[in-house]
Design goal:
By secondary structure, this protein is an alpha+beta fold. It folds into three domains: about 150 residues, no CATH class; about 110 residues, MgtE N-terminal domain-like (MgtE N-terminal fold); about 110 residues, CBS-domain (Roll). The chain is about 30% helix and about 25% strand. The chain has 15 helices and 19 strands. The strands form four sheets. Strands 1, 2, 3, 4, 5, 6 and 7 form a seven-stranded mixed beta sheet that branches. Strands 8, 9, 10, 11, 12 and 19 form a six-stranded antiparallel beta sheet that branches. Strands 13-14-15 form a three-stranded mixed beta sheet. Helix 5 crosses helix 7 and helix 7 crosses helix 9. The longest helix has 11 residues. It is elongated and about 75 Å long. This is Magnesium transporter. One of its GO terms (cellular component) is membrane. Keywords: CBS domain.
């Protein structure tokens, strides 16, 4: 069900299922109370199971009535994907323990659904680093959750469920999790993935997660972040910890961050990124397009190439100009980029105000503008997303916005093995 589209009776799309909410019952399997649905605007709302008229293959049909208030978890409610998947359980027959990897729900009456089966993976039986342990199906009464004090739940299955999410969507998902679970998942994410997610979070949440990481891990994550985002994050930490993390970072990455920290946040220097595409005037159109095609390159940085004299790392040699990718497309592959420079685009200096940078981008329909120092050496570029981050309110990432929404077999909850009945 994770990711299934939710429709109203007329077939209009309302949103997507992001989790399923259950409540525990004495001596009975948990009862489903509703769905957590992501509607336009990235807002997550609660849809009561009583509003669901059909759960089919790849789609959920509702009555169309929906309360668009942001979902808030109540006491006693448990999220299946966020909290149950990855939990350790022991088998009631004494045959050992396992980890819950998926959950099946089954309709028990009109508007009544409950947990019917668990998909559990037992520990590996060999010492080989490859492969996984055997899996079994079990009913709720055939297992017992391991709830020892201080024992954390595995976050591996939850991370696998969220694996195909874009960083911004994963950031919103983590912010919706209970605090303890959020920090647990953050600690389990790979460095590069966590860096991407942190870049999409409000600064206060970035700091909260960063404060839970040891210095070595925190420095590794900062190495993976864009220098301007890393600088903004370090600026929010205590001066002592910020300096300690800079010492632990890769020297080249730390130097970029230190340079950015020297500029006021409301200037071009404070907004810019220090990793634009930089080439010599003798580079060809073919070489430029090859650099733009790199998968890891942000779209705004790929919109234009900077041409400078050597050296080609900020601060570079004298800045010569920029070549827009659309212009490169109009010329043969062997054409030299030095002859395609946009003569009408002047760089800004590092102390240019953010307001002036915004005016330039808007006036000339640009997605980036180069930044030079007093010696006309390129030190970075300000992209349109940098400016938007500055202009939008501090809480824009968690802002709900105005959203107007009209309002007999088991289904698996997460993306994993099908639980058939």
């Amino acid at each position: 069900m994770a990711g299934c589209t939710v429709f109203d009776p007329a077939g209009d799309r309302l949103g997507k299922v992001r989790d399923v909410l259950v409540v525990y019952r004495n001596n009975e399997s948990p009862r489903l109370v509703g769905l957590i649905v992501e509607i336009p605007g990235k807002r997550r709302v609660f849809v009561s199971i009583g509003r669901v008229t059909s759960i089919g293959s790849g789609q959920i049909i509702t009555t169309g009535l929906m309360n668009v208030r942001r979902f808030e978890q109540r006491g006693g409610e448990v999220r299946v994907i966020a909290e149950i998947l990855g939990r350790k359980v022991t088998f009631a027959d004494g045959s050992g323990e396992g980890t819950i990897e998926d959950v099946a729900i089954e309709q028990s009456g009109p508007g009544e659904w409950s947990v019917s089966q668990l998909f559990v993976r037992r520990p590996k039986t060999t010492a080989s680093p490859f492969g996984k342990g055997p899996t079994v199906f079990a009913t709720w009464n055939e297992v017992r959750e391991k709830g020892q004090t201080g024992q954390s739940q595995s976050a591996e299955q939850l991370i696998a469920t969220y694996g195909d999410m874009k960083p911004a969507d994963l950031a919103n998902t983590l912010l919706d999790l209970p605090q303890g679970r959020r920090l647990e998942v953050a600690e389990e994410l790979p460095d590069a993935r966590l860096a991407d997610v942190l870049e999409e979070m409000p600064e206060s949440d970035q700091v909260e997660i960063m404060n839970q990481l040891d210095d070595t891990r925190a420095a590794d994550v900062l190495d993976q972040m864009q220098p301007d985002d890393a600088a903004d994050l370090i600026a929010q930490l205590s001066e002592a910890r910020g300096e300690e993390l800079l010492k632990l970072m890769q020297p080249e990455e730390a130097d970029d961050v230190r340079m950015l920290l020297a500029y006021a946040p409301d200037t071009a220097g404070g907004l810019m990124t220090t990793e634009p595409i930089i080439v010599s005037a003798d580079a060809t159109v073919a070489e430029g397009l090859a650099l733009i095609r790199r998968h890891e390159l942000a779209p705004a940085l790929g919109a234009a190439i900077c041409v400078t004299l050597p050296p080609y790392e900020p601060p570079t040699g004298r800045f010569l100009g920029m070549v827009h990718f659309q212009r490169m497309l109009r010329y043969p592959p062997h054409e030299r980029l030095g002859g395609l420079i946009d003569d009408g685009l002047d760089p800004v200096t590092a102390d240019t105000s953010a307001a002036e940078v915004s005016r330039i981008l808007a006036s000339y329909n640009l997605v980036s503008v180069p930044v030079v120092d007093e010696n006309h050496r390129l030190v970075g570029v300000v992209t349109i997303d940098d400016v938007l981050d500055y202009l939008l309110p501090d809480d824009w990432r968690s802002h709900d916005g105005d959203v107007t929404t009209p309002a007999p077999r088991a289904r698996r909850i997460a993306n994993g093995t099908q639980l058939a009945h």
